[in-house]
């Protein structure tokens, strides 16, 4: 990756001399992550993976939700609530975790439902399905890595937040951060 084609060609030749490999051209699809070149840069997205995920969990015809979770959602484990199939629940959560690579706004909601993998109840499954409904309305969304301007200086910007003992059952805090370099997210949790 770079702006100088001669340097890229030279680097590829060095790699070919040292390792047995083949040049398959520009990156388009890798491990379920798609890369699409547009006028303003490159978009990293998981459109095909998201569509397959919605089909697998029979949510491809669901009504889209505008947010991944309800505002102020607090999931608790009520003893009188009905249990759901733990294997199906874990499959949904695992699949959603992988989507957090290209859709960072899922991270908080997926983190909430991940806390109940051992003992999932109906309310937890409803929250997981809400995230799937959000995906239904955001298929094709991803992360834009904008083209850098040669004369501009790269800027590193970070944001963080915490709810300080927000979990009512164990008083644990939920914290998160995201860092941008040149307008593109490079690290989030």
Describe the protein in words.
- By secondary structure, the protein is α+β, with helices and mostly antiparallel strands.
- It has one domain.
- The strands form two sheets. A four-stranded antiparallel β-sheet has the order 1-2-3-4.
- A hairpin with a 2-residue loop joins β1 and β2.
- The longest helix has 16 residues.
- The radius of gyration is 20 Å and the shape is elongated.
- About 15% of the residues are buried.
- The mean pLDDT is about 85.
What structural keywords apply?
189 residues; alpha+beta; 4-stranded antiparallel sheet; 3-stranded antiparallel sheet; 5 helices; elongated
How many structural units, i.e. domains?
A: 1
Order of helices and strands: HEEEHHHHEEEE
Biggest sheet: strands, sense, closure? 4 strands, antiparallel
The oligomeric status of these chains comes to: single chain
The amount of helix comes to 25-40%
How do the strands line up in the largest sheet?
A: 1-2-3-4
| Mean pLDDT over the full residue set | 85
Decide which structural class fits the backbone.
alpha+beta
Q: State the low-pLDDT regions, or none.
A: none
How much strand?
15-25%
What global shape is seen? Answer: elongated
Radius of gyration: 20 Å
Number of helices: 5
Number of strands: 7
Report how far the terminal alpha carbons are from each other: 25 Å
């Amino acid at each position: 990756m770079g702006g100088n084609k001669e340097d890229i060609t030279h680097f590829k030749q060095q790699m070919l001399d040292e390792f047995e490999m083949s040049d398959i051209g520009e990156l388009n699809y890798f491990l379920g992550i798609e890369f699409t070149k547009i006028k303003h840069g490159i978009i990293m997205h998981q459109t095909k993976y998201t569509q397959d995920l919605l089909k697998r969990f029979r949510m491809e015809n669901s009504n889209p939700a505008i947010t991944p979770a309800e505002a102020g959602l607090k999931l608790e484990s009520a003893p009188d609530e009905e249990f759901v199939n733990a294997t199906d629940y874990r499959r949904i959560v695992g699949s959603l975790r992988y989507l957090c690579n290209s859709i960072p706004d899922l991270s908080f909601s997926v983190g909430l439902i991940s806390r109940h993998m051992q003992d999932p109840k109906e309310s937890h499954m409803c929250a997981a399905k809400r995230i799937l409904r959000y995906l239904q309305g955001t298929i094709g969304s991803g992360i834009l890595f904008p083209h850098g301007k040669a004369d501009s200086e790269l800027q590193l910007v970070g944001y963080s937040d915490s709810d300080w003992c927000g979990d009512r059952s164990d008083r644990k805090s939920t914290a998160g951060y995201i860092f941008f370099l040149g307008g593109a997210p490079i690290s989030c949790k």
